[in-house]
Amino acid sequence: MRELSLNNSRLDKRYDVMRELGRGSYAEIFLARDTLASPQSPHSRVVIKALNVFLQDDLDPDLERTLVENFQNEAIALDRVRHPNIISRLGHGTARDLAGTVFHYLVLEYLEGGDLQRACREKAFSVKDALGYIEQVCAGLRHAHRHGIIHRDIKPQNLLLTADRSTVKIADFGVARVFQSDAPITRVGTNIYAPPEHSPLHAGPDGEANATKLTPAADVYSLAKSAYTLLTGEAPRFYANNPITDLPLTCRSEDWAEQLVRVLSRATLADPELRYQSVDEFWLDLESVRRIIADAETATHVRPKLQPVPQPHVAPGYTPLAPRQPRFQTSRDLKLRLPLMPGSGPSPAHQQIVPTQPVYKPMERVEDHWPNAEPFKREQIEVQIEPTAKQRGRGSKFMRRLAWAAVFLVLFAGALFGTSAYLRSLGYTPVITNPFVPEELATANTDVNLRSGPNANTDLVGLVTRNSRVRILKTQGSWHQVEVVQQGRERTDATPTNRGWLNGRFIDVEQ
User: Fold this and answer.
1) Is the pLDDT of residue 59 over 60?
2) What pLDDT, on the 0 to 100 scale, is given for residue 393?
3) Are strands 9-11 and 361-362 parallel, antiparallel or unpaired?
4) Which long-range contacts (CB under 8 A, 24 or more apart) does 421-429 make?
5) Residue 149: pLDDT band by 50, 70, 90 thresholds?
């Protein structure tokens, strides 16, 4: 076993590796600082997950290929299920460490709040907070299942918190699988949270279960066991590989205890076909528990509205846009650009001292080679003519001017766009329409609220009274974005805006 030498180094001239966070069977995890990010950015500190095939004692070409493929599949799975409650991949690369070993790596967001297992040990959650975390996990899992990905290792240790502990994100998709796949299912997870069909306790001699069909019910089982931990403060050790039939003594007298046992018991049945078949079914049946808790915390007689679908929680720094997808390769598929001698480090040219504290040593970025690959001989020698200092000065001065001009144009265009959008929202400027497309008008058949988006869950921004005439600006499904041309009756209260979204059934389109 050979560990990577990354501490106090600068990876790819960007990431200053600060310390090691942990190590698995095939990867090492490091905390790093992104030197290109603002100190106020949520991603100023990141996690480097480095693939180290040399952690395996019996490394062979087939095992190496499997490890690289699994590592790439993890990146693909994270991009495929990108969601506010799933950890985001920020980048990737291939580089040498300080000892000259080539490795692939993923850049993941760093969640400072730690995992839910540790947070639960430090301080017991209130029932309201625990249900809030469970809802966020349900939202992330629901999104993953809708995109065909089964996590297979849901447990409190893989549920990470942001620094303010308001958002939880699902991590570690290293063993995630596409549930339509016919490939044999390897036993993964821990005995406490893994369903019986995936538990290591029931693994055969080959570690696989060829007769088991992979479905979302496996994640529902682990989700229910994790919910038990969050709501009771204790791990379900007595129910390992068995359905949950009771709660700890500290919770049995609660009003919601009986309903919670009923839901968790069905979710953790040994037969996957008898469990809830989706996260939606689990969350909907959990409504009885949520209703009892909500009624107990509400002082008024108005019953709070409960969401039928788990709602995500968006933390600062989230974006739905994924970075470029990696294409990691093994030593059989790669050519070695620079000869790699056993035990040799980077060339002296790369051992430049970076003026930071502690001293970070830059490592060479490598895109097309891997350890154990055979070197090839160059047939041609490339000669590059360095520009003179005067030429470099002229070029850099021109580029600086060009960059400042581009920044000014972007700021100016953004200011114009923002001002125009604000004035349009207040109704001070008319909407410019295409003169070649006939204007579509409609009449409101009842009083209807204007919303900020094409969804009943978006914010209210105005009101259209009955018999009002509206101009249809845009259509999305059964929703229309409209602008009020003339209100049906006078209103005493001020209308925030005369432009927004409403459902098509509340208006009659004029012929």
Assistant:
1) yes
2) 65
3) parallel
4) 424/499, 425/497, 425/499, 426/497, 427/497, 427/498, 427/499
5) very high
Predicted confidence (pLDDT) at residue 426 exceeds the cutoff of 70: no
- The backbone region for 430, taken as left when phi is positive above 0, alpha when psi lies in -120 to 50, beta otherwise, is beta
Sign of CA dihedral 105, 56, 59, 151: negative
Which segments of 216-311 are extended strands (E)? Answer: none
| Cα 351 from chain centroid (whole Å) | 36
> In this structure, what token pair is assigned to residue 189?
């997870």
**For residue 2, what pLDDT band results from cuts at 50, 70 and 90?**
confident
pLDDT at 349 over 50: no
284-336 pLDDT per residue, tens:
999 999 999 888 877 656 677 888 899 999 999 999 888 888 888 765 554 44
pTM: predicted TM-score of the whole model, two decimal places:
0.64
DSSP 155-174: -GGGEEE-TTS--EEE---T
Helix count and strand count (H, E) for the chain:
8, 20
State the amino acid at position 28 in one-letter form.
Answer: E
CA 45 to chain CA centroid, Å, is 16
Q: Compute φ and ψ for 47, nearest 5 degrees.
A: -110, 130
Alpha helices (H) along 429-492 = none
Contact 89, 107 (CB under 8 A): yes
